[in-house]
Amino acid sequence: MAKNIPAEVEALIKPHIEALGMTLWNVELLKDGGSLDLLVTIDKEGGVAIDDCAAVTRAIDPLLDEADPIPTSYCLEVSSVGLERVLKRAEHYDYAVKTGLPCNVRLFAPIDGAKELCGTLEGYDSDGFTLKCGEESIRLPKKSVAKIYITHEA
Q1: CA distance 59 to 64
Q2: Lateral strand order in the sheet of 86-87
Q3: Which of 14, 81, 85, 154 has the smallest CB count inside 10 Å?
């Protein structure tokens, strides 16, 4: 069974990022041509500055070198979540429900002629999402949703 490198990296670096007063949003291992990029996305109350990204890089780079969770060479990239945060995990969905920030939902196939819906995430479970669009709440099966992201901060 292949190991889950992003989960292993997350477990290793999360406490160190939190000790710097930031939140680990996501860890992804991406192929970019013939190379690998380890993308670590962070967040902080009031926003992330370039100095925050540099501080996280300095804190986690030696940890990654010592633990060596990635068997090949890679490029470490630390970045802010930005304004359009992609929601991928339960903690992300909780954040969207709690804050009530506007979200866009891209669908694999159109529903009533629309492949993208805008609204606020009211809830989610293992089967899907409930999106409030204006006065209407729409239930979206998980398998129909390609991507959910926050469109902007309030």
Answers
A1: 10
A2: 86-87, 145-150, 102-111, 114-125, 128-133, 136-141
A3: 154
CA distance 46 to 148: 23
Q: Where are the beta strands (DSSP E) in 13-52?
A: 23-32, 35-43
Q: Is the pLDDT of residue 10 over 90?
A: yes
Of 19, 36, 35, 100, the residue nearest 27 (C-alpha): 36
Q: Which two tokens stand for residue 115?
A: 């492949």
Q: Can you give the pTM of this predicted structure?
A: 0.79
Nearest CA-CA partner of 103 in 125, 124, 81, 87: 87
Q: How far is CA 25 from CA 38, 63, 93, 100, 102, in A?
A: 13, 18, 12, 18, 18
* Statement: residue 45 has pLDDT above 80: yes
Question: 119: which 2 tokens?
Answer: 């609204």
Structural domains in the chain plus CATH codes:
5-80 (3.30.300.70), 86-150 (2.30.30.100)
108-122 per-position pLDDT tens digit: 999 888 899 999 999
Which helix (H) or strand (E) segment is 92 a member of?
A: helix 90-99
